[in-house]
Amino acid sequence: MELGLAGKVVLITGGSKGIGFACARAFAAEGARVAIVSRDAANLARARELLSAEGFHVHLARADLHEAHSAQDVVEEATAALGPIDILINSAGAAKRYDPDLLDAAAYKAAMEAKYFPCIYPQQAVLKQMAERRKTQPDAAPGAVVNIIGMGGKIASDIHIAGGAANAALMLASVGLAHHYAKLGIRINAINPGATLTERVEEALALEAERMGISRDEALARGQANVPLGRYAKPEEIADVALFLASRRASYVSGAIIAMDGVSAPLI
């Protein structure tokens, strides 16, 4: 299927590892011009090395997306390097998991700052740019946003209550903004992965193993046994759906929240 992504400028937050990295590789393979954002210089360097080994060149941008001005700066930097942004993939941000007995006001605030705002701030900056371009250049490509959120905002986990609340807020914001920007042809969609085999799920497995007094492998086996498809997702599978949602093949899809949880949603 021809997705029409060649030459598109794609900004991927959290693009140095996990699902974000899988998205960077997938868009680069489609011929897109990719910029990846991370606050960790070592992760960015490792991502560049891995992608270069496959023949892909990406622009690297180091930024702390917990601050609105940093998100604005990185959008301007990527635009200066590659051109106006056509597609934003938001995969940055991860809220800490807590034993419910340890939750307090600070934990809830930290979850919003860790997950909600690192998605909202770059989205705000990119949408402003896309909207201005559409108003001044009606024939310009309308643009697309895909927010990688997580099933924790829809199905509660007792060790992910604060983070799940941030995810739920992002789901609402994604749909609400999709309604607002539809008049300009700008599409906003979201993906809710279930447990996906990334570094983050490894952390969750370690916490679950500690709580239950079992090994990491047993925690994984128990978790996967709860998924009707019989396994956790691969990052590349999430990236494939992000490609579609960002492409012209999904030109009439906006305000959608796609569940990718194998029917069940443990540990995310």
List the helices and strands and how they pair.
Layout: E1 9-13, H1 18-29, E2 33-38, H2 41-53, E3 59-62, H3 68-82, E4 87-90, H4 105-136, E5 144-148, H5 161-181, E6 187-193, H6 199-212, H7 216-225, H8 235-246, E7 257-260
Parallel strand pairs: 1-2, 1-4, 2-3, 4-5, 5-6, 6-7
Helix pairs in contact: 1-8, 3-4, 4-5, 6-7
Features:
about 270 residues; alpha/beta; Rossmann fold; seven-stranded parallel β-sheet; 8 helices; about 50% helix; about 15% strand
Question: Any overview of this molecule?
Answer:
The protein is of the alpha/beta class. The protein has a single domain, classed as NAD(P)-binding Rossmann-like Domain (Rossmann fold). 48% of the residues lie in helices and 13% in strands. The chain has helices at residues 18-29, 41-53, 68-82, 105-136, 161-181, 199-212, 216-225, 235-246, and strands spanning 9-13, 33-38, 59-62, 87-90, 144-148, 187-193, 257-260. It has a seven-stranded parallel beta sheet with strand order 3-2-1-4-5-6-7, with helices on both faces. Helix 1 (18-29) crosses helix 8 (235-246). The longest helix is centred in the middle third of the chain and has 32 residues, at 105-136. 47% of the residues are buried. The mean pLDDT is 91.
